[in-house]
Design brief:
This protein has 450 residues and is of the alpha+beta class. The chain is built from 14 helices and 15 strands.
């Protein structure tokens, strides 16, 4: 790996260091035959810790960790939970890492109590870039786009932290109040029905582009699914029920019920279990469609009346990521058919270009592919050949930077968006660790010329 210079900040400039993470980087890198792939892994896995983490002890004496997304100085509930996810298995033996992760849970709980409809927050109670949005902007909120996955990621991280560490210290009265706020928000957006005014959420962006929050203003049936206004791309939905976000929420609620039961919060545990079952049943009833080529598949968005939007987006939760999120096994027949649709030209956001083939997003426009989608494709694949193809494409499209990006032009990877996008970097690192643990032969199979 001598010809590849590390792109990490000098040790003295790194925002957070973990002995366990450094040990993992060393042991996994030594098992990767291709020096460029090993270099990419060593740059990407620690990128969140190196560059985005602000960990301190708060005024209340509890860990407080603010995690920015990268080139935007704000903390997304979704991104921050995903960014620290690969650290969880190491937290039991690394006390500093455990405190940092507990600080993320603590910070997310306070963010939700500030505004459960917001998706991104500032470290301090200031009004920032989107303060002119026509919604209830509060100091400390960066952006107030109602996205189901924001709350689902909070529940997912909380449960996974407990599972990994056995530590219950983050789950205090503040966290419990945040969970109650999550459940109340879910219930509200599940029962708006024919009277959209029952939702307290409205949103318009007047400056530059007009984004009326039609999803919270149109009538829809009380069918058990949860309405939202925005996708995990931060783009507006076209139909009010976003299927992969509801699927992720069903899993997060199911898992949270076990944590809540262990904490003897029996009312919350029962509510979480009931809501998970309700959403899962509603998905089976309203989100399955028949495609003329692929057969019975999951829709991306539905309206509860029979209309459906057939597509997939690169961001997670996505239809492609359902096994990664725990909603179904990767060999589930309906998922396999849905996957075949997503990875075909029938998906309007599947892109084939000179440099790569993969899923893109309307967020970055036609002709773009997201490294995150290629990574998720590999993480959910059961086919060694497909995984190797994804690895080869990820390796060949970083444009010499040593990092993953938000998206790249399928014909010209040197044209890319977001040079500093920590979630994409961390997820790529997670893929390599997963392969090291589950399919180590693949890390020997990719040749330096691939």
């Amino acid at each position: 790996m001598s010809s590849f210079v590390s792109q990490r900040p000098p040790a003295k400039d790194r925002r957070f260091s973990s002995a366990a993470v450094e040990s993992l980087i060393g042991s996994v890198s030594a098992r990767i035959a291709d020096p460029e792939l090993a270099w990419l892994f060593a740059n990407c896995l620690p990128n969140t810790l190196d560059t985005t983490v602000d960990h301190r002890i708060g005024a209340d004496g509890r860990p407080d960790t603010y995690v920015i997304t990268g080139d935007i100085d704000a903390m997304w509930l979704r991104d921050s939970a995903a960014q620290v996810w690969p650290c969880l298995p190491l937290a039991r033996t690394d006390e500093a890492l455990r405190r940092m992760l507990a600080g993320v849970v603590n910070r997310q709980a306070r963010c939700i109590l500030l505004d459960p409809y917001a998706n991104a927050f500032y470290r301090d109670p200031v009004l920032g870039y989107w303060q002119s949005d026509l919604t209830e902007m509060r100091p400390g909120v960066h952006e107030r786009k109602w996205e189901i996955d924001s709350l689902a990621y909070f529940l997912r991280l909380s449960h996974a932290y407990w599972t990994a560490t056995g530590d219950t210290s983050p789950f205090d009265a503040t966290w419990q109040a945040a969970v109650r706020a999550v459940f109340a928000t879910i219930r509200t957006e599940q029962t708006v029905g024919a009277d959209p005014s029952r939702s307290p959420y409205t949103f318009e962006r007047a400056a530059g582009q007009h984004l009326p929050s039609h999803a919270c203003r149109v009538k829809s049936p009380d069918c058990g699914l949860v309405r939202c206004s925005f996708r995990p791309s931060d783009d507006m939905v076209k139909l009010p029920f976003l299927v992969p976000a509801n699927a992720m929420l069903a899993v997060a609620l199911r898992d949270a019920s076990t944590l809540l039961a262990a904490l003897h919060l029996d009312d919350l545990a029962a509510a979480a279990h009931t809501q998970s079952e309700t959403i899962t049943h509603a998905l089976e009833t309203h989100a399955v469609v028949s495609h003329p080529v692929h057969g019975e598949i999951w829709a991306y968005e539905v309206d509860g009346y029979g209309d459906a939007l057939l597509m997939d987006d690169a961001n997670a939760p996505s239809l492609l990521s359902l096994p990664y999120l725990g909603f179904c096994p990767p060999d589930d027949p309906r998922y396999r058919r849905t996957r075949a649709f997503v990875l075909s030209s029938d998906n309007p956001h599947h892109v084939t270009g000179r440099a790569a083939t993969g899923v893109g997003s309307p967020h970055t426009g036609p002709g773009t592919i997201w490294p995150m989608a290629l990574t998720l494709q590999a993480l959910t694949s059961t086919d060694d050949t497909e995984i190797l193809r994804c690895l080869a494409q990820l390796k060949s499209t970083h444009a010499g930077t040593g990092f993953m990006h938000e998206s790249f032009d399928a014909g010209n990877p040197a044209s890319f968006t977001r040079p500093w996008f920590a979630w994409a970097n961390t997820l790529f690192g997670e893929l390599i660790v997963t392969l090291h643990q589950q399919r180590p032969h693949l890390l020997h199979a990719l040749s330096p010329s691939a």
